[in-house]
Amino acid sequence: MRVSSGVNGFDRLIDGGFPSNRLYVLSGPPGSGKTTFSAQFMAAGAAAGETSLYVSMHETRDGIIADMAAFDFGFEDAIESDSITFLDALSSEGRRFFGGPGEKMDRTNVTNRLAGFINSRDIDRVVIDSTMLLRYLFDDSDTTLMRFLTAIKRTSATTLLISEMTDPTAYADEHYLAHGVVFFHNYLEDDGMRRGIQVIKMRGTDTDTEIHTLSFTSGGLEITAGKPVR
After folding, report:
1. In this structure, what are the phi and psi dihedrals at residue 24, rounded to the nearest 5 degrees?
2. Buried b (16+ CB within 10 A) or exposed e, 25-34
3. Where are the domains of the chain?
4. Which of 130, 128, 200, 216 is nearest to 165 (CA)?
């Protein structure tokens, strides 16, 4: 089964959509489109009648609604529906959810509660924003972080993990663990900033690995068909 990204032009790069029930990493520098891509992914799920979970440390619910207000892909309607659960991990509600009364949450609780919530609610789509959040929660060892990601991989959801990354040659553990990796690129040229998107890997999928032009439009992100960045 394939899961649509909701991003115009992207699904054709990965043979029709993300293979379902797997973990994917979106990597790139600030301002490259990762959060907008994830919001479109959530909105597409709501439009398809699916349930979603958005876990963030960067944004409040109202903040991300405001950020997406300039686009008309229906994110506000989607997040205000019953189909999307938004969890600000560093809020008091988030700490209660993860069972962490102190400054740092109990790492076993974080893994068990989140994986359990996904499975018990039959969540279809998950966005975790971001690896910065995970390294805050799991700062004791990379092993604990990998256990968390492995647990999320084994859930019934299709999951996007946002990864802050400015050097596309500096691979992290999550890139090796994930079923797929998508890189976002920023290019500063004479006429201003250009953006690109590249599918680095997608297991079990016939993949277009060229860097393709990525644009912000009123409808959200859009990949220009047949226009690789040279």
Report:
1. -130, 145
2. bbbbeeebbb
3. 2-228
4. 130
Reduced to 3 states (helix: H, G, I; strand: E, B; else coil), residue 77 is helix
Tokens of 65: 């609604």
Alpha helices in 56-181 (DSSP H): 61-68, 75-79, 92-98, 107-120, 131-137, 142-153, 173-177
CA distance 2 to 16: 7
Residue type, 29: P
pLDDT at 130: 77
Residues in the chain: 230
Tokens 């992207």 label which residue?
10
Amino acid at 105: M
Instruction: Please state whether the peptide bond connecting residue 52 to the residue before it is cis, i.e. omega within 30 degrees of 0.
Output: no
Give the span between the Cα atoms of 154 and 138, in whole angstroms.
19
Instruction: Report residue 117 as tokens.
Output: 């919530």
φ, ψ of residue 213 in degrees (nearest 5): -65, 130
- Per-block mean pLDDT, blocks of 10 residues, the chain (230 long): 95 94 92 94 96 88 93 93 87 74 63 90 92 68 78 93 72 80 84 85 88 94 72
CATH class of the region 2-228: alpha beta
Contact 174, 187 (CB under 8 A): no
Give kind and range of the element (H or E) at residue 47: helix 34-47
Give the tokens for residue 118: 């996904």
